[in-house]
Amino acid sequence: MTIYSFFIFDRHCNCIYNREFTQTSAAGVNNGLINKNNTSHSSKLLFGIIYSLKSLSAKLISENELTSFTLGQSFRFHFWESVTSYKFVVVTGYDVDDMQQVLVRLHQYFVDCVASNGLTPVEFKWSANGEKLDNVGYSVICNNSFVEETDQYLQSLSIY
């Protein structure tokens, strides 16, 4: 049981936050990457899979919504979408059950640290080729408080 990565997508289908976790045995030290794969094909493919499965499940079963799906016996993808169309995805091991409350809690950290921050842009803007528009780094979430709080919370879970 483990957590592999955490993604946030905005309402324009852009990956605005990506946290890869590297599991180590040295007293909780985490050497994972933050926002290094936001424009990669893997984040775009992940969003495409979620979008397609969400559309398909809505057409087949109107009462249920997509909350998780698995790929083989390796990974489980947990999905939650806010009212403002931000999509939160946590990739875990296959044997991890429902993570909806965890995703809601991660959304609360997002609201507290990012959305409530007056310096955060209203829209996360990208150029036509997928690169950041400015050098300040406002195109992705780079709020240290958000990164620290979400890391501490995820590492405190028994499945980490």
From TrEMBL:
Family: Belongs to the TRAPP small subunits family. BET5 subfamily.
Compartment(s): Endoplasmic reticulum; Golgi apparatus, cis-Golgi network
Cellular component GO terms held in the UniProt record: endoplasmic reticulum; Golgi apparatus; TRAPP complex
Name this protein carries in UniProt: Trafficking protein particle complex subunit
Superkingdom to which the source organism belongs: Eukaryota
Chief place of localization: endoplasmic reticulum
Keyword Nucleus found: no
GO biological process terms, semicolon-separated: endoplasmic reticulum to Golgi vesicle-mediated transport
UniProtKB keywords: Endoplasmic reticulum, ER-Golgi transport, Golgi apparatus, Transport
Pfam families found in the cross-reference section: Sybindin (PF04099)
Subunit field text: Part of the multisubunit transport protein particle (TRAPP) complex.
SMART domains cross-referenced by the UniProt entry: Sybindin
Keyword Cytoplasm: no
